[in-house]
Amino acid sequence: MTATLLLLHLLGATIWTGGHLVLAFTILPRVLKGRDVASLHWFEQGYEKLGMPALLVQIVTGLWLAWQKVPSLSLWFDLDAGPIAHLIRIKLLLLLLTALVAAHARFRVIPRLSPATLPLMGWHIAAVTLLSVAFVATGLSFRVSWGM
Ligand code: HEM
C-alpha cells in the first residue's frame, strides 16, 4: 500500500513541480517578452486539466503518508513531537501558501490578465514554482538528511 501511495505521490510531484518549472523557465519568459497573454491562457487552460487533479492526488496521498508516519493530529501540531512531525508541518504550511497564491492568481489576476498585468502574473508563477520545489525538497527530507 505504501509503495502505491508513494508512486502516486511521486507521479503527482512530477506533474505539479515539473509543469511549473516548464511554465516558469520556458513559457513565461517568452510570454513576458512578447506580451503574449493568449499563449499564457492557452498553457494555463491545458495544464489546469492535469495540474489540478495532480495537486489533489498530492494532498490525499500526502496526508495519508503523513498519517502512516505520525498517526495523531495532535502530534502533527506538537512542536516537541520530533523531526517527522516538523516536516509534516512544513508540508502543510507550503500547502497553505500554495493555496493562497494560486487562489489569488486564479480569482484576482487571471480574470484581468492583460499585457499590463502580465508581470504580476509572472510573480505568482514564480512563487508557486518555488513552493513546488520546496515541496519536493521537504518530501525528500523524510528520507535523507542534507548533511547539515
Ligand atoms: C504539490 C505538492 C507536493 C509535492 C510536489 C510533494 C513531493 C514529495 C516528494 C518528491 C517526496 C519524496 C518521496 C520519496 O522520498 O520517495 C514526498 C514525500 C512525502 N510527502 Fe509530499 N509532496 C507534496 C505534498 C504533500 C502534502 C500536502 C503532504 C501532507 C502532509 C505530503 C506528505 C509527504 C510525506 C509524509 C512524504 C514522505 C513519504 C515517505 O518517505 O514515505 N506531501 N513528497
UniProtKB/TrEMBL annotation:
An example of a Gene Ontology cellular component annotation for this protein is: membrane
Q: Which domain of life is it from?
A: Bacteria
- Domain Copper resistance protein D intervals: 45-137
Record field: transmembrane: 50-67, 88-109, 121-142
Keyword list, A-Z: Membrane, Transmembrane, Transmembrane helix
The family database entries (InterPro entries) matched by this protein are listed as: Cu-R_CopD_dom
| Nucleus recorded as keyword | no
Family annotation (Pfam families) = CopD (PF05425)
- Identify this protein by name: Copper resistance protein CopD
